[in-house]
Amino acid sequence: MLPQETIRRKRDRQPLDAAEIADFVAGVTDGRVAEGQVAAFAMAVFLNGMSRGEAVALTLAMRDSGDVLDWSHLGPAVVDKHSTGGVGDNVSLMLAPAIAACGGYVPMISGRGLGHTGGTLDKFDSIPGYDTAPDNALFRKVVDSVGCAIIGQTGNLAPADKRIYSIRDVTATVESVPLITASILSKKLAAGLKGLVLDVKVGSGAFMDSIDKARELAVSLVEVANGAGLNTTALLTDMDHPLASAAGNAVEIANAVDFLTGRHVDRRLHDVTVALGAEMLVAGGLASDVEAGSRAMAEAFSSGRAAEKFGAMVAGLGGPADFVEKHERYLERPPLTITVEAPPELRERCAGNLAFDTRAIGLAVIELGGGRTRPQDPVDHAVGIVGIADRDWDGVSPVCRILARDEASAERARARVLGAMRRGRGAPPAVLERVGATA
């Protein structure tokens, strides 16, 4: 099939069969399909959509464009989760070791920060020695021995996705639900999973700011994943407030260690982590239902076994062997800390029912240097925001503390945080909806 014929058929809203989609994606991978043709195809899909069958075929073709990992020797309990991104979303840091503590295996392939949202790999780069890009042999060794490993995308995992996404990013076609679906799922399928749980964020700190948009994406992801043979469910979770009380890189690592050791546990973060973990345990055959899964997750945290798994994963991937016990020694802290107090008008307006324009909190971290404005920008892993007030803020306590390199960046972040404060519309539950596979 000629690439231009595939583009023409999608342009004219004619159905594409699996073979021609596979041939087009193979051409993307080996260079037979030009950049302009990829852009034209992406725009045709953006404007005309895809049937569920077409989306499944695209996902499978992108999966098969490179390596597909095989974890069959570990049995059916090879599971993972994917988040659509948020602020203070460090769920993976506690979730993966908790699943490992329950007998599961989590070969988690994560990404870096995107826009205002934080990236799991950027957080782990805060840990001295931790290797986010190990070779396959070390990756397999840590998953086999510890039960979890959180790393970045390997060089030949779904390479078609890398090329297609880079072109979508500059052709105004990122927001296409079928293309988002194929991009996310092709990498997860290539990771060799047996079960997947999706955390689709909703609210001011999410890419999907309305529940209708989030539900549309969740349904697409769940139906396509299951159509491709991967047992998948999704939870819609609230991102109208930072999930953890910290936002940044090293500060979110410290927050995760505090959670795992019981020193400090953010309530909503706990609720989301346990809910996702319960779904993963069911998907992996390690729990009979979500209630049993929730109990198992709670026990993994309270017993300290999840903290032990986290420490073993860090050490296995090159980090300090005593990181959990002495993380404050290893995590860099910037020289300046300022406390953000709210002026009287904000105290009166927001006391007892605080909400944020959560995206602005993420942007404040970027302004401190904790994120990127260009892909090539370095990240300052030490800076961030801690002690972020919860929804039931008393109006007297500080709103947060800002960890910065200098007064100028601290003041810019302070102004953005205060400008983001608003009166909430009640406190929604942390988990809003569940989307499961349909018959």
Could you give the topology of this structure?
Blueprint: H1 3-11, H2 18-30, H3 35-48, H4 52-63, E1 79-83, H5 91-101, E2 106-110, H6 120-124, H7 136-146, E3 148-152, H8 159-168, H9 177-190, E4 195-202, H10 211-227, E5 231-238, E6 247-248, H11 250-261, H12 267-283, H13 290-302, H14 305-316, H15 327-330, E7 336-340, H16 344-350, E8 354-356, H17 358-370, E9 384-386, E10 400-404, H18 407-420, E11 421-423, E12 431-435
Parallel strand pairs: 1-4, 2-3, 4-5
Antiparallel strand pairs: 5-12, 6-9, 7-10, 8-11, 9-10
Helix pairs in contact: 1-3, 2-4, 2-8, 4-9, 4-10, 5-12, 5-14, 7-14, 9-10, 12-13, 17-18
Describe the structure in brief.
With 439 residues, the chain is of the alpha/beta class. It is built from 18 helices and 12 strands.
Descriptive notes:
With 439 residues, this protein is α/β, with parallel strands linked by helices. The chain folds into three domains: 61 residues, Transferase, Pyrimidine Nucleoside Phosphorylase, Chain A, domain 3 (Up-down Bundle); 257 residues, 3-Layer(aba) Sandwich (Pyrimidine Nucleoside Phosphorylase, Chain A, domain 2); 92 residues, Pyrimidine nucleoside phosphorylase-like, C-terminal domain (Aldehyde Oxidoreductase, domain 3, Alpha-Beta Complex). A four-stranded mixed sheet has the order 1-4-5-12, sandwiched between helices. The mean pLDDT is 93.
